[in-house]
Amino acid sequence: MILIMLGAPGTGKGTVAGILSKELGIVSVSSGDIFRKAISDKTELGKEVEKYLASGALVPDELTIKVIEARLLEPDLEKGVILDGFPRTTHQAEELEKFLKDNGKSITKVINLVTPKEEIVERIVNRRICSNQNCKTVFNMKLNPPKVEGICDKCGGELIQRKDDKEEVINSRLDTYYTETAPIEKFYEEKGLLYSTQISEKINRLADKVAKDVVELLK
Ligand SMILES: [Zn+2]
Asked: Within a domain: residue 123?
C-alpha cells in the first residue's frame, strides 16, 4: 500500500500520517526523514544531499527523486509506506509513477487535507514553542495554552514564537504551497487517486476522524 499525503503546512498532516501509520501498520516517512537517513547511512546519494543541505541550498529535483526511490526499495517499506512531503512537483509525481510501475507497484490513494486558510494562519500565529532545545514542547495560546503565560508546563523553559510563525511569513508560505500543489492535485485527480477531505476545528473534524475515514476508504 502506498499513500501520499498532501496538505498545507499547519493542516495537521503529520498527525494524520502518524495515526494512519499505526492503524495500517505501515511506515510514514517525510522527505526530510529520507534525506536524514541517507546522510546517516552515508550512501553515495546521502553524501550529495549533505553537500546541498550544508550550503543551505535546496536539494535539486533529480537528486530528491533518486534518494526517495532508493529509500522506497528498502525492506522496511516493502509492506507499504505513507509519503509525507513528496512529490512536491508534477515532475516528481511523474517520475515517481514511472518508478513504481517499473517495480510493479502503484499508488493506492492520495490523501489531500484541506483546512481553510484563515484557520491555518490562526493556528500557526498562536503557536508557541519551548525554547529549551531538549524539550521543544509545542503549545497553542488558544487550543492548549500553558498554565502560566510564556512558561513551558513541562520544563519551565521560556516559550517563544518561531520567526516562521509570524503572519506575513505564513501567508507567503501558504501562497507558495497552493501555487506549487495545485498542479499535483490535478495530476492525481485525473488519475482518480485523489481523496480531498476537510480537517478543521471549526467543523469539529479533527485528525482522528479524518484518519478513521481514510482507513474506511481503504477497506
Ligand atoms: Zn519545555
From this structure: no
* Domain encompassing residue 92: 2-26+79-115+168-218
Does residue 134 lie in a domain region? no
CA of 166 to the centre of ligand 1 (A): 21
Q: At what angle do helices 117-125 and 167-190 cross, to 10 degrees?
A: 140
Surface-to-core class of residue 138, CB atoms within 10 Å of its CB (0-12 exposed, 13-18 middle, 19+ buried): exposed
Number of domains the chain is built from: 1
Question: Annotated catalytic residue: which of 36, 105, 117, 173?
Answer: 173
CATH number at residue 17: 3.40.50.300
Note the pLDDT tens digit of each residue in 160-216: 998 888 999 999 989 999 998 899 999 999 999 999 999 998 899 999 999 999 999
Q: Which of 66, 71, 123, 127 is catalytic?
A: 127
